Amino acid sequence: MAKLAVPPLFSLRHFLVLSLALNVSLILRTAYYESGEGSKGFCLKKKMMVDVDSDVIDKSRLAISSSTSSLVNSTRSAGRERVINLDHGDPTMYERFWREMGDKTTITIPGWQSLSYLSDVSNICWFLEPEFAREVVRLHKVVGNAVTEGRHIVVGTGSSQLILAALYALSSPDAAEPISVVSAAPYYSSYPSMADYQKSGLYKWAGDAETFDKEGPYIELVTSPNNPDGYRRQAMVNRSQGLLIHDLAYYWPQYTPISSPSDHDLTLFTVSKSTGHAGTRIGWALVKDEEVVKKMTKFIELNTIGVSRDSQFRASKVLKAVSDSCEQENSQDEESFFKYSYKIMAQRWKQLRAVVDAGDMFSLPQFSPAFCIFFGHETEPQPGFIWLKCEGDIEDCESFLRGHKIITRSGKHFGASPKYVRISMLDTDGTFLQLIDRLSAIQERE
Amino acid sequence: MAKLAVPPLFSLRHFLVLSLALNVSLILRTAYYESGEGSKGFCLKKKMMVDVDSDVIDKSRLAISSSTSSLVNSTRSAGRERVINLDHGDPTMYERFWREMGDKTTITIPGWQSLSYLSDVSNICWFLEPEFAREVVRLHKVVGNAVTEGRHIVVGTGSSQLILAALYALSSPDAAEPISVVSAAPYYSSYPSMADYQKSGLYKWAGDAETFDKEGPYIELVTSPNNPDGYRRQAMVNRSQGLLIHDLAYYWPQYTPISSPSDHDLTLFTVSKSTGHAGTRIGWALVKDEEVVKKMTKFIELNTIGVSRDSQFRASKVLKAVSDSCEQENSQDEESFFKYSYKIMAQRWKQLRAVVDAGDMFSLPQFSPAFCIFFGHETEPQPGFIWLKCEGDIEDCESFLRGHKIITRSGKHFGASPKYVRISMLDTDGTFLQLIDRLSAIQERE
C-alpha cells in the first residue's frame, strides 16, 4: 500500500473562524436524539441518528484525502446542530486503511464451506480455527506484545464473551458464596453489568479494587492500557488468593508504547480494537492453565456452541495482512498498519491537546513517553478514548456536553466522578473534526 | 441446479454379505476414543477422531455420486473398526447440495466492510443486519412455517444464545426466587445445563414439564418437532402463569409436514438445522412483545456486543438461495433445497426402518403422515435424529452401541431411560451408511 497522507495540522484559528462563520449561515435542521437504554447502551438513537451517522460518514470520506478547506466544508455540511455520538468506541477510523489495502483482505467463502460446528477436534477448544490460531501467534511475535509459548488460545465472540467465560472458569460451583469481581476505578463501564446481569451464584461484582478489603478469593480485572483513562495498569489488590484477568484490548503500538511482551495467566485481546473489525466479533484469550481452557471452552459451548467460523476466517486474513504489513515495511514502499494508525492517533491527540489547552474549561490525562520495542524508539501513549474532565463549576460533564450535542459516557458509569466523561477517539475523521470544532467553540463562548 | 440422483435403495442382503466378508479381511487398525466432557460434550474425541472424521468425509464424497458397489467400497474402506460419532447433530449432510449450487451462495467481503459494531441503529435490535431480516421474513413466507407479521426479529449467535436471551428476558430481576424452567421429557439434553451453568438467580431448571406442579410463574420450552424424538409438540403445562419459548429449529419441510404457520409469542429458528450452516452460528427469534425484544437485545449486548455481521451476511445469501430455489422450482429444471433434502431424509429413514425392522433388537418412533402446505401433499415426519430404543435385556443402549464403535447420546441426558439413545441423521452419506451397516451386523450377530 502506498503511504497515505495524514491531514496536516491545519491552523486552528483559520478553521474556527471559517467554521463559525459558515455555521451562522447554515439552515438549521431538525435534530434530536432519543435515549433508549440510557447513555451506557448502544440503543441511544433511533431514526434520526442513522441519518446523522451516515451523513457524517459520507462527509468524512470527502474530507479524508483532501486539504483543510474540504475538512472545513465537511464540518460545515454536517453542522453543529447535529448530534455526534461518541459514547461507544466504534473503531470506524480504520476504514480508510482497509480500503487502501484493496483486495488483500477480501475474503471469499463458498456456500458449502465450514458447514460443520467443528473446527479442530484435536484441540480442547474444538471451535478454534487452526489458521486463526496461527495468525494470532504470528502477530504477537511480530508486535512483541504477548508471550504465546506455553499458552492455549481460546477464541470468543468478541472479548466480552471471553470475559464472561473467564469469570465462569475462575469461579467454583461449590463455593459457599459468589467470588468477588473487582477492578480499579475508573473501570470499564460494562464490567459491573457483565458480572451481575445474570445474578450468578458463581461470581459477583464487588466494585473498586483499590478499596476492596474482603478476605478470601477474588477475581481482579486488570485493563491495561486502561479503558477509560488510558493509563498502564498492574493488579491493585495484592493478595495471594487473587485470580487475574488481564484485558489488554488496547495493548497495541498505536495506543501505547509496547514495553515488553505481556506474560500473564489469562490475557484477552480483540480484533475490534487492534485492527478495527468490531462487526466481526472476534476476540482471543491466551491461557496457561489447561483446566481453565476446558472450562472457558465449556462456557462458550453452552453459551453459543462455538464461534462463527466465517468471522474467524476473516479475522485470520486481517491479522495476516497486519503482520505482512509490518514485515514488508522496510523492504517495500509500504507503511505498516501500526505506523499508519499510530500517525493518525498522534495527529488526533495533537489536535485535541491544542484545543483543550487553548482554554481552561477542560483537562486531559498526562502521559509520559516510553520506549516502544515495536517501533524501536520512544512513543507517547495516545489512548482510544479521551478521559475528559470538566473543570470549574460543571459538575455533570456528560449533561453539559449533551447540551452541545456531543454524546459521551459519564464518569459515574466508570466508578468515577460525573465531572469526567469518556469520549471515543476512534470515529471517522469527519466526526472527530466536529468534536474538535465544538470543544473549541464551547471554550470560545463560555 | 440440475436434479441430483439420490442413491437407490440397494439390496440390503447384497450389501451385508459383501460388507461382512470384506470386514473379515480388513487389517485391524488401532482405534480408540477418549471421552473428554462425557458423552454429552463436543470434546469427545482427540487426535484419533480427526483422522476418522476426515477419512469418513473423503470416503463419503466418493460414494455420493455413484452406485451401490462404491457405497459398499466406501464402507469397506472405512471399516467397522473405526469409531463413528453421531453424538451431536452436525448437519454435514447438506454439503453436497451447496457444492452443486456453485457460486450462488459464495460471499465476498472486502476488508473495509462492516467494521462498525452497528448494523441498524433504527432497530431496537441494533446489531440485526436489515438484509438478513428481509430474507428471514421472505423465507417464512415462502415456506409457510411462521407468521412474521407483528413480530420483531432478534438475531443470535445460534439459537443457543437466543434461548439464554429469552430466559433472561422472560425472568424478573426482582422476583423472590428464580423462575422455574421446564420442558417435557424427553427434552433437549442441553436445556438443563444451559439453564443452570451460571447458577443464575433469575431462572432455574425444574425438570420434566409433565410432572411439574409448582405454583407460580414458569417458563416452558416447547420444542417442536421435538429433539430428540421428532414428535410434534404443544405446551404441556396448562396454566395461566406460563411463559412459552417455542424452539422450532426442526420445523422445516424436510423434517416434518408444515401444517400451518406457527404463531407464538416467542419462536426460535436457526440456520444450523434449516440449511446446514452450523459453523456460521446464526439463529433468529420472532418476538411479539417489544419489552422482550429490548431485554433480549440487552442480553446479547452484554454477552457478545452483537452478532457477527459477516455471518449474518452469509446467512442472508444462503436464505435467499433457499427461497429462490423454492420459487424457481416449477419454472426451471431445478429442485428446491427442501425437495432435495426431503428426498435424502426419506431415503435415509427408509433404509433405517428396513434395517431396524429386520430384527427385534431395536425399535423406532412411529409417525403418522399429514398434509404439508409447502409440498401440497401428505408427507411423513422424518426427524433429524433417531430416537432409538434397545429392546430386550439391553439396559444401557449407549454403552452397548459404544461397544460397536457407534457413539450416541444416552436417553438419560434427555430425562428418559438409558434404554434410549439419540443418533444424528444429518451426517455424511458415508457415515450414515456405516451406521446402517453396523446396526444390521449387530442384529445378525446377536
Automatic annotation (TrEMBL), chains A, B:
Swiss-Prot/TrEMBL cofactor(s): pyridoxal 5'-phosphate
InterPro entries xrefs: Alliinase_C, Alliinase_N_sf, Ethylene_sulfur-biosynth, PyrdxlP-dep_Trfase, PyrdxlP-dep_Trfase_major, PyrdxlP-dep_Trfase_small
Q: Which residues are the signal sequence here?
A: 1-21
One Pfam family matching this protein: Alliinase_C
The Alliinase C-terminal domain extends over: 84-442
One of the record's GO molecular function terms: transaminase activity
Give UniProt keywords alphabetically: Aminotransferase, Pyridoxal phosphate, Signal, Transferase
The alphabetized list of GO BP terms reads: amino acid metabolic process
**Transferase keyword on record:** yes
Superkingdom of this entry's organism?
Eukaryota
Subunit field text: Homodimer.
Record family assignment: Belongs to the alliinase family.
Q: What is this protein called?
A: Alliinase C-terminal domain-containing protein
List the source organism: Psophocarpus tetragonolobus
